[in-house]
Design goal:
Layout: E1 2-7, H1 15-19, H2 21-24, E2 30-34, E3 38-44, E4 47-54, H3 59-67, H4 72-85, E5 93-101, E6 104-113, E7 119-120, H5 133-148, E8 151-153, E9 161-166, E10 169-174, E11 180-182, H6 187-192, H7 201-215, H8 219-240
Antiparallel strand pairs: 1-5, 2-3, 3-4, 4-6, 5-6, 7-9, 8-11, 9-10
C-alpha cells in the first residue's frame, strides 16, 4: 500500500499520528458521523482533530481517482486553504492522506481542527423567523460576501454551515468542502444556492431579501428565484423521502 501525506506546515509535529491513521483510525476518538463517510473527533496532545475517512470508491472510480481525478480529501484540504486566503471561515486544515494499491485508489482522509461551535443552520427546521432575524440577516450577508469573492459551496446544506457568536456578531464556518465552485456567481446561481436550507417561506423570503440588498440585486426578483428553487428542491426531495420536510 502506497501512502501520500500532505501536512500543513503548522502541524508537522503530527506527522507520526497522521501516518498511522490507516491502521488506527477505527480505534481512536469518538465517532461524530457514521454514514457513507466516517468522521471522528480524535484528541492528539493538546489538540482535537476532526478526521474524515472517505468511503473507498467503486472499482471504476478507484482507477479514475488514481489517474485522472483529484481525491475528495485533497480537494477538501486545498479548498480549505483557498477559503482562508479569501477570508472565509472553515476549521483549520491540518492534512490529507491518500492510500493507493497498484494503480487503484483506496482510502483517503481529510484532517482538520475540531472546533466548538454555538450552533449550525440545521437548527432551523422549525422554520420560524421571529427572534432569529439578526442571525439570518448576518448569514445572508455572509453568503453575499462569499459569492462576491467568487466562492460557491455546491452542497450549501444546513449541516455544512456552522456559526460562533461573539457579542452581537455571528461568525459562520463552512465544512464538507470537497464540492466547491470558484468563479462569477450570478443572481440566479446565488439564489439557487439557498435551495437546500431548512425553513418556511417567511424565513426563506427574509434571507433572500437580505441577500439581495447586500449584492444590490432586485429584491423582488431575488425572492422569486430563491422561493422557486427552494420549492422545487423540497418537492423533489420529499417525494423521495416522504418522512423529511424543509421545516416542521
Amino acid at each position: 500500500m502506497k501512502t501520500k501525506i500532505v501536512i500543513n506546515a503548522k502541524y508537522q509535529h503530527l506527522k507520526e499520528f497522521i501516518g498511522k491513521l490507516p491502521v488506527n483510525f477505527h480505534t481512536q476518538g469518538e465517532v461524530l458521523f457514521g454514514g457513507r463517510n466516517i468522521i471522528r473527533d480524535i484528541p492528539v496532545g493538546d489538540l482535537r482533530l476532526n478526521v474524515k475517512a472517505f468511503k473507498v470508491p467503486n472499482i471504476i472510480n478507484q482507477f479514475v481517482y488514481d489517474n485522472f481525478r483529484i481525491s475528495k480529501a485533497r480537494r477538501s484540504f486545498e479548498y480549505a486553504n483557498l477559503l482562508l486566503e479569501k477570508g472565509i471561515n472553515t476549521p483549520d486544515p491540518v492534512a490529507f492522506l491518500e492510500c493507493k494499491q497498484g494503480f487503484l485508489f483506496k482510502q483517503s482522509y481529510y484532517i482538520s481542527i475540531q472546533e466548538n461551535f454555538d450552533g449550525l443552520m440545521r437548527e432551523f427546521n422549525t422554520g420560524e423567523l421571529a427572534g432569529r432575524e439578526d442571525l439570518l440577516s448576518q448569514f445572508a450577508k455572509f453568503t453575499a460576501d462569499m459569492h462576491q469573492k467568487e466562492v460557491l459551496h455546491l452542497d450549501y446544506s444546513p449541516g455544512n454551515i456552522l456559526y460562533k457568536k461573539e457579542g452581537q456578531s455571528f461568525h459562520f464556518y463552512l465544512v464538507d468542502l470537497n464540492r466547491m465552485y470558484f468563479g462569477n456567481i450570478s443572481m440566479d446561481l446565488g439564489c439557487r444556492s439557498f435551495r437546500r436550507l431548512w425553513g418556511n417561506e417567511e424565513m426563506i423570503r427574509f434571507i433572500a431579501s437580505e441577500y439581495a440588498k447586500a449584492r444590490n440585486f432586485d429584491q423582488d426578483k431575488c425572492i422569486e428565484l430563491t422561493l422557486l428553487y427552494h420549492r422545487k428542491f423540497w418537492e423533489y426531495f420529499t417525494k423521495k423521502h416522504p418522512d423529511k420536510k424543509a421545516y416542521t
